[in-house]
Amino acid sequence: MIQEFKNFGYFIHDISWRELQSVRDEIKETDGLEDYGEKVDGHVDKTFKLSTSVKDLETLVMPYFIEYDKQYNFFKHIIPSIGYQELKADLVMNDAWVSFQNKHEFNPAHTHPGLLSFVIWLDIPYDRPSEIRHSPGKSKNNKSGSFTLYYTNSLGSVETENILLDNTFNNKIIIFPAGLKHSVQPFYSTDKQRVSVAGNLYIQGKG
Q1: How far is CA 152 from the centre of its chain?
Q2: In angstroms, rounded to a whole number, what is the distance separating the alpha carbons of residues 173 and 122?
Q3: How many Å apart are CA 187 and CA 164, to the nearest integer?
């Protein structure tokens, strides 16, 4: 009999252009958006806080958060004293931001506040073959432009899960625990910006 150790994974889902319309409308003009660069850990030139599209984002991502909890019984592990039914009315996503990442910029390994986090890739302007050709040096496992998750295995060693991003990930969302370390690697093959939206899920107290 084979018995696997239990651990928390991540979800990746496709979402439609229509579901992201309010986000795209808000970020068309960034002049009026609040600079959010000092609130996040990335070495990314332009990061802005979202406001008018946050409620639409919350409506969009909440079913994925709930599905994640059903898969892993996540909330019960994190907060044993609060059951799923009590949590449902208290889940809120009260911060979200958009990042415009330029060539060579990156996000070092970091975590987020809250319970669960998400990233939606709105525009990834490169493909894998181009990244492999243009990234410096030689590597048997080229990871340029990727999204990397870090976790410990049953022996206590740190493992990495590298999601090799390219334009096939446009309009995809990833859901993962907010406390899971992750990083964003630089890309090299284009001068166009990579655009992503991220946010966190929290518990809001009653009363």
Answers
A1: 19
A2: 9
A3: 11
Take residue 92 and report the two structure tokens written for it. Answer: 């809120």
79, 180, 165, 73: which is closest to 124 by C-alpha? Answer: 165
Cβ distance 146 to 185 under 8 Å?
yes
Confidence category of residue 206, pLDDT binned at 50, 70, 90: low
- In this prediction, residues 167-177 reach a mean pLDDT of 98
Q: How far is the C-alpha of 94 from the C-alpha of 96, rounded, in Å?
A: 7
Candidates 2.60.40.10, 2.60.120.620, 3.30.300.30, 3.30.2130.10; correct CATH number of 11-203?
2.60.120.620
What are the sequence ranges of the domains in the chain?
Answer: 11-203
Lowest mean pLDDT among 53-62, 80-89, 108-117, 136-145: 80-89
- Output the pLDDT for position 179: 95
DSSP string for 79-113: -TTS-HHHHHTTEEEEEEEEEEEPTT-BEEEE--S
- What are the tens digits of pLDDT across the range 70-106? 999 888 887 765 555 555 547 888 889 999 999 999 9
HSE-CB at 31 with a 13 A cutoff on CA atoms is 1
Residue 44 and residue 41: Cα distance in Å, rounded?
9
The DSSP line for 38-68 is GGS--B-SEEEE--TTHHHHHHHHHHHHHHH
